[in-house]
Design goal:
Layout (H helix, E strand, L loop, with lengths): L1 H36 L6 H28 L4 E4 L6 E4 L3 E7 L2 E6 L2 E12 L7 H15 L6 E2 L14 E9 L2 E9 L3 E9 L4 H10 L4
Antiparallel strand pairs: 1-2, 3-4, 4-5, 5-9, 6-7, 7-8, 8-9
Length: 215
Amino acid sequence: MNNKWRIIFTSLTASIMLAACGTSDADPEKDTTGNAIEEPAAPVTDVEDSTSSNNEAKNETDTEVGTDDNAMKNAVETTSDEQDYSMKVLPGYKLTSEEPGRDSLYLEEDGEIFMRIETMPKDEESYTFDELYENMEELLTASSNSGTPVEITEQTDLPQADDILSVKGAVVDSSEGYFTGYVIEREDKLIRVTIYAQEDNEHITDFKNMAATIK
């Protein structure tokens, strides 16, 4: 009997061990298959942040684009008495002929803040665009008691309009005042404007916006 039970016990033990081994072999294969088809979820936060940033950038751009249009909505179309051009003049400013070939647009409450305007037909070729810009820099240097003009590189600081072919500008800040000059090329004429003010303020922006309308 002891031998019989020993044989039976040994057989049962062997069967259990084989069954256990079979289960152990099957589970890893199942787990491996499951891991192979699992894919990481797409990061939702990055998409939302990107969309939010794009919307914010668009809103800022829309605001910037509309700024000058809103600022000029009350401007009045005005024709020069002596030169062949017209422009939009904001309330509080007045356009007058200073001398042949030269006008002044000045702040009515302070005549020391003004913009000198000179135009010339391109077909006369008395100046090229680059020559007129160099001449403007010399004028700024002389007006500021030998100050050094610095070219304006930011496009938003220059007169902007769809029909402006080329534009360059420079500024000089000296003890004599804050002076800004622009040279503008349109299809039929070259325009030079020189702004004289005591400091950089909102009037400079007004003059820049009005200069963009000279045509």
